[in-house]
Amino acid sequence: MTATRTAAGAPERVRPAGYAVVRPGGRGSFLVHRRSLAVTCVLAVLLAAVCVAYLCVGESFVAPGEVVKVVFGQPSPDQLVVGELREPRLALGLLVGAAFGVSGALIQTVARNPLASPDVIGVTHGAGAVTVAAMTYGVTSYSALPYLSITGGLGAAALVYVFAWRRGLHAARFVLIGIGFSVALSSVTQLFLTKGDYLVAQQAKVWLTGSLNGRGYAEARPLANFVLLAVPCALWAARAQRTVSFDDDTATALGIRLGRIRFGLVALGVVLASVATGAAGPVDFVALLAPQIARRLTRTAQIPLLASALTGALVVVVADLLARKLFSPTELPVGVMTAAVGAPYLMWLIVRSRSRSGEPS
Amino acid sequence: MHLRRRTGWMAAATVALLLAVLLSLAVGSREIPPSQVLDALLHGGTSQNAEVVRSLRVPRTVIGIMVGAALAVAGVVMQGVTRNPIAEPGILGVSQGASLGVVCAIAYAGVGTLSGYVWFAFAGAGAAAVAVYAVAARGRGGASPVKLALAGAAMNAFLTSIVSGVLTTDAQTLDTYRFWQVGSLSGRDTDIIAMIWPFLAVGLLLVLAMARGLDALALGEDIAKGLGQNVAVLRLTGALGATVLTGAAVAAAGPIAFVGLAVPHLARALVGTAHRWVLPMAALLGPVMILVSDVVGRIVFPPSEVPVAVMTALIGVPFLVALVRRRSVVAA
C-alpha cells in the first residue's frame, strides 16, 4: 500500500531509494516500495502455510494433502472435521485479525502514536459492555451482536473524543481519558456478568476474553460484509494516510482538510475494531501489535495497511492455534494468548519510549 | 492554609462519615428508621429490624469503612511516592495483581479462607506494583502520568488474561470468584473484619510514620535528600504500606477502582498538601465515598444490588476527566 502514483514514465534518476517503477500495461506507472512488496508477499505465503497447519492440527491430525482436497472442494473423508469445524473458525480468525490490524494501523497513524490502539482508547471495552449487556438481557442472535458492538464501540470512542477535546486533541490526554473510560466500562460489563445467570456469565466471560471457540460462518459472515464494505474505504485511507503525516500548518497551506480526513480514518478504524469485537469478543492487543510489527518489517515511515492486515490475521491464527493445542484438551480463549504476548510488548514499548509524553519511537 | 479552616474541614468530613454510616445502616431492601437503628445499636433488642442491623448492616458498614480508608490512603501514598497525580491501586494494576493472587490461591493452593489468601493478595499486589513502576520509570522522562497509566493498563490486561485463563479452565473457581471479582461489600461476614484489621492497622501506621517524608519528597528527590530524608527507604516504606493496604482491601472486598484516585485529590483540595493533614482527611473521605456508593447501589435497581465497585467507577470517571483536562497533569 505504499505505491505512489507519479507522472507517467518518471525518469529513472529521480526515483527514491528503495522504490521500483511498475508500468502495468504500458499506461501510467507506480512506484512500489520494494521491501514492502517483498514483505507483503512473504507474509501472504506464511499466512497460507499457517492456515494449512491450522486445518491439520486439532483433536485429530489431518494430513495436509487431505486438507488441500477439502479446501478445493474435492471429496474427502475428513470433510466434516476440516470443512465444517476448522474452516469456519479459521475464516473468522482471519477476518478478525485483519480487521484489528487495519483498525490499529489507521488509529495509530492519526494519533502518530503506537500506543493509541482501539484497546487503549476504550473502543473494545465499549463494544464489550454493550454486547454483554445485550447477552444478559437474552439477545443471543449472533447477527444482532455486531450492530450492538458497533454502537458500543462508536459510543465509547465518541465519549472519549468529546472529553479529551480541549483546544485540539492532545495524544496524552486522549490516552489517559481512554484508559479511565476503559476501566469504568469494564466495571459496567462486570455488573452485567453478575446480574445474569451462571450459564450466561460463563458464556459472556469466554466471549469477553476474545474467543473463536464454537464460532464460525454465522459470526464470520456479517464481519465479512463489513470488511468488504471497508475495502474501498481502506483504499481511500491508504492515500489519505500520507496527507495525515503533514503537520497542521503544511496541510492548511496545501489546502487539505486535515480534520475531516483524520476523522474519517479514525471512524473507519473504530468501526472495524467494533465489528471485529462483536464477532469474536475483544481479542486484546492485536490492533496494537500488528501495525507495529508490520512497520518494522517493511521499514517504512508510514504504517503499511495491507501488511498490517496480514500480520493481524497471522497473529490471531497462530495465537488460536496455540490456544487450542497448548493446554489440550482445554481450549483457551484466543484473547488470553494475544494478551499474554501483547501486554509485555506494550510494556516494552513504554520502556523504550523517548519523550516525556510516553510516545515511543 | 489556616489551622482553623483545616480543622473545620476535618470536622465536616467526620460529620459526613457519620451521616454515611447512618445511611448505610438504615437504607436497604428493608427501610429502617434511624431511631430504630440507634436503638438496635445502643440497647440491643431482638426485633427483626435489630437483627438485620446487627448481623448484616453493621459488618457491611464496618468493612466499607475499612476498605474505603485503606484504598484512599494507599492512593495518597502512591501519588506521593511516584509524584504522579494519576497513581491509584485500581488503575495501576495493583488491585488486579492482588486479585490474581487470590484466584491462584483458590484454584491451585486449595485455600478457601480469607486468612489464607490475604497473603497471596499481598504477594500479587506487591509484584504488580513493583513491575508497573519499574516499567514506567525506565526510558526517558521517568514515570510520567501517561507512561504509568499505560503500564498499568498493560499490566491490567496481562493479569486479566491470566485470571481468565485460570477461570476458563476451572469452572468451579469461576463460580466462587465471579461475585467477588467485582468489588462488592455484600455477603461479607464478620470474620473478614477480624481478619483484616491488623493488616489495616499496620499499613496505616507505616504510612502515617512517613507523612513528613512524603512532604519532603513532594519538593523533589534532591531537596528531599537535602532535608535529610533517605529517599530509597521512603519509597520502599511507601510501597510496602500501599501494598499492604491494597492487598487487605482487595482480599476483603475485591478490586475497587477510582477511590484511590478521587479521594486524595479531594482531600488535598480541602486541607492543602501537607501529608499529616491529607492522610487523615483521605481516611475519612474514602469511607464516605465507599459507603455512599454502596447505598446508592442498593437503591438504584431494586431488588438487585449494583456492586460498589461499579458505582465508584461511575462516580470516579468524571473526576479523572476533570483531572486530566487540567493542563498541568498532561504536561507533567
Walk me through the structure.
The complex is a heterodimer of chains A (361) and B (332). Chain A has 361 residues and is mainly α. Helix content of chain A is 68%, strand content 3%. Chain A has 13 helices and 3 strands. Chain A has helices at 34-56, 64-71, 79-111, 123-136, 145-164, 171-195, 198-208, 217-244, 248-254, 258-280, 286-298, 305-325, 334-351, and strands at residues 4-5, 19-22, 30-33. In chain A, strands 1-3-2 form a 3-stranded antiparallel beta sheet. In chain A, strand 2 (19-22) and strand 3 (30-33) form a beta hairpin. The radius of gyration of chain A is 21 Å and the shape is globular. Chain A starts with a strand and ends in a 10-residue tail after the last helix. Residues 1-7 and 355-361 of chain A have low confidence and may be disordered. With 332 residues, chain B is an all-alpha fold. Helix content of chain B is 79%, strand content 0%. Chain B has 15 helices and no strands. In chain B, helix 1 (3-26) packs antiparallel against helix 3, helix 3 (48-82) packs across helix 12 (259-271) and helix 12 (259-271) packs across helix 13. The longest helix of chain B is centred in the N-terminal third of the chain and has 35 residues, at 48-82. Chain B is globular, with a radius of gyration of 20 Å. The two termini of chain B are 25 Å apart. In chain B, 56% of the residues are buried. The interface between A and B is large, with 57 and 55 residues.
Topology:
The complex is a heterodimer of chains A (361) and B (332).
Chain A: E1 4-5, E2 19-22, E3 30-33, H1 34-56, H2 64-71, H3 79-111, H4 123-136, H5 145-164, H6 171-195, H7 198-208, H8 217-244, H9 248-254, H10 258-280, H11 286-298, H12 305-325, H13 334-351
Antiparallel strand pairs in A: 1-3, 2-3
Helix pairs in contact in A: 1-3, 1-12, 3-8, 3-10, 3-11, 3-12, 4-5, 4-6, 4-7, 4-10, 5-6, 5-10, 6-7, 8-10, 11-12, 12-13
Chain B: H1 3-26, H2 34-43, H3 48-82, H4 94-107, H5 114-137, H6 145-168, H7 171-181, H8 190-209, H9 211-218, H10 221-226, H11 231-253, H12 259-271, H13 275-300, H14 308-325, H15 327-331
Helix pairs in contact in B: 1-3, 1-13, 2-3, 3-8, 3-11, 3-12, 3-13, 4-5, 4-6, 4-7, 4-11, 5-6, 5-11, 8-11, 12-13, 13-14
